Amino acid sequence: MLNLNRVTKQFGGLTAVDQISFDVETGIIMGLIGPNGAGKTTLINMISGLMPLTSGTIHFNGADVTNLPAHKLCKLGIARTYQNIRLFADMSVLGNVLAGRHLQTPWSSRYWRWLFPYRDSTAQAQKAASEALLKRLQMVDLRDHDAADLSYGDQRRVELARALATEPRLLLLDEPSAGMNQSETFQLGELILQLREEGVTILLIEHDMDLINQVCDQVVVINFGAKIAQGEPQVVRRDPVVIEAYLGQEEA
């Protein structure tokens, strides 16, 4: 589904991502781990069209999508969440999720909604779909709350709901468990596994190794912008190079 070939990002004389190559096969959950500052979010930013590559190529479902803008990638089926939450703070939870349904609304429907808002069945359907997502994420009681008033963990869940509202084929998650307690993180893992069963392919940046071990089929490890290991989580965590760079000697 997703192919990265020698993807590189340089900022002046600093190489933040150094010729990284790997494939994410359809229907799997791929973990992307490494120390802080390793280049994980920079890599996700390039995949999602928020940052141009210095060199290398990215293919999605066989098509070259290198340096396509984010809105075009979203139309192709790539959605993401952010390490630093990007919600509409003054909008309700439901309003934020509805924003993610924008691409599911035909242009003709948007025109008629402007003329005859009281007769717009498409808008009603989009609202119903958004409310179903909130129910799935156990956030119905927060639907009318402003995003700014939510806890950090709840804001994370709203951002996930908004990404899912775009009906993605590939979902990029940047530290989705940040701010969640152990129980919430486990429930998040169960949701991620369910999404895989429904056909969503997932690339997951995460520091919580329990969550990585719970959900990931494969793991890519990067350090100082370069890929140092790839494989099943149980195998990667025993790799001496990974232990030294990231997991710590206590994992040996």
Walkthrough of the structure:
The chain has helices at residues 40-47, 70-76, 93-100, 107-115, 121-136, 152-165, 182-197, 209-215, 233-236, 240-247; strands at residues 2-11, 14-24, 29-33, 55-60, 63-64, 78-80, 170-174, 201-205, 218-223, 226-231. Helix 5 (121-136) crosses helix 6. The radius of gyration is 19 Å and the shape is globular. Strand 9 (218-223) and strand 10 form a beta hairpin. It contains ten helices and ten strands. It is an alpha/beta fold and 252 residues long. Strands 6-7-8-3-9-10 form a six-stranded mixed sheet, sandwiched between helices. The longest helix has 16 residues, at 121-136. The protein has a domain at 2-77 and 168-251: 3-Layer(aba) Sandwich (Rossmann fold), CATH 3.40.50.300.
